Amino acid sequence: MKKNRIIITGGKGFIGSHLIKNLTAKNYKNLLSIDKHKSKNQSTKTVVGDFFDTKILNNTLQKDDTVIHMACSSVPALSETDKEKDIQENLIGSIKLFQACVEKQVKKVIYFSSGGTVYGNYGKRAIKETDAQNPFNAHGAMKLAVEKYLQVFSHVHGLNYIILRPGNPYGRTIDNHKNQGIIDIFLKKITNNEPLEIWGDGKIVRDYIHINDLTGLIIKIIENEVNNEIFNAGTGIGTSINELIKIIKKTTGKNITVNYRGTRNFDVKYNILNIEKAKKLLNWQPRINIEQGVKMHVATLKISNKK
């Protein structure tokens, strides 16, 4: 299995770079990344270009490849401001990728969707993969549309897939977060002695998953012969933004200024993911709770304990 090729779109990004690092540590050799920029990781070959470039896909993909589709040019706020670009690059682009995967007879496509946006509001309970998806922001609608097209390609052409719906991953370096991931944004601001900006009253609840737990789940998916399934990727535990700030304060020992701003109508108020399916079918479960994860990340970023 470790001799088979793994193609990662967006391998230079936050999750992709950590996945490549962990796969390399497990002696996976045939890793290839499709990215807009050359990767600094010397152990990985990089094809420079867009993941939806038909010429690049035809020249890169081979029979029996595992394709991990992580590349996405938008985040929820950007999806709202330029929906046409979001659809053109991420929805139509993904369709082009799936078509090439069919033509090249790849083994499997693992698609990174969004457990935080495709479901909508479900109240204060953990959301299952079988629950209806009712996104009410553009990012969630785009991610769900890509999921549905992938399932169409499976039904019509026999393309094997896994859809992964992660919660809120964290663990980015200071220079590798692109204003994404609230924990990572907060820690960068604290490093720069800047106030924290909060949309709403801080009561929004999210399911935060450490990058090591998330990449561990991806490797479980690669190493198991499970196909045509959807998995949530979280912890099953919710933490509000206000609770998160308290954890960060306690961990760093710093005085933190918080500025609360107006509520955004495209933010999901409460999002916790039920992860029993991944536990049962993949024998996986997260090992790092939010307090441990923040502590680990603070240590990695070398944030001083001085106030």
TrEMBL record:
Gene3D superfamilies: NAD(P)-binding Rossmann-like Domain. Transmembrane segments: none annotated. Residues 6-234 form the NAD-dependent epimerase/dehydratase domain. It comes from the Bacteria. Belongs to the NAD(P)-dependent epimerase/dehydratase family. This is NAD-dependent epimerase/dehydratase domain-containing protein. It comes from Candidatus Falkowbacteria bacterium RIFOXYD2_FULL_34_120.
